[in-house]
Design a protein that fits this description.
145 residues; alpha+beta; Serine Protease, Human Cytomegalovirus Protease, Chain A; 8-stranded mixed β-sheet; 8 strands; 16% helix; 46% strand; disordered C terminus
Length: 145
């Protein structure tokens, strides 16, 4: 049986500079999210290493909120679950193409439109506040709700 773990958090925080100096502006994901389609949940940004799936991706007043299930049906999902259980994995990071941006004084970019390609579970996010919390096995959450 797949012991999926429910996770949720923010993959991007609006207005906060990441370690490269990039700042995402509110509305940057609007066009990309409107296109629909599945956004992969990857493990450490490695293509083909799916750790589960996102059930919710939306912009709100704080940033890009995500909710999803980390599964044990893939090797990446099992590795992610193990790291989550050992409290060594709680970061989120976006893989994207910057469609509209301008340079920031002092370095980095102001990102006004982003094509979202993937959201990864990572040990060390570029945006230090981009974190998730795990709520336990999904089947327990469903029973408790």
């Amino acid at each position: 049986m797949d012991e999926a773990v429910l996770i949720e958090g923010y993959a991007s925080i609006f207005g906060a500079a990441d370690l490269a100096g990039d700042v995402v502006r509110p509305g940057a994901f609007t066009r990309s999210l409107a296109k629909g389609g599945e956004v992969p949940m990857l493990f450490q940004h490695v293509s083909g290493r799916a750790a589960g799936s996102w059930t919710t991706i939306r912009e709100d007043g704080r940033g890009l909120f995500v909710r999803g299930l980390v599964t044990t049906t893939t090797a990446a999902g099992r590795a992610a679950r193990k790291m989550i259980a050992e409290q060594g994995l709680d970061g989120l990071s976006i893989g994207f193409i910057a469609r509209d941006w301008r340079p920031r004084i002092g370095g980095g970019r102001e990102l006004r439109e982003i094509e979202l390609r993937e959201v990864s579970l990572v040990s060390t996010p570029m945006a230090p506040a981009a974190r998730f919390r795990a709520s336990g096995p999904a089947r327990q959450i469903v029973l408790a709700a």
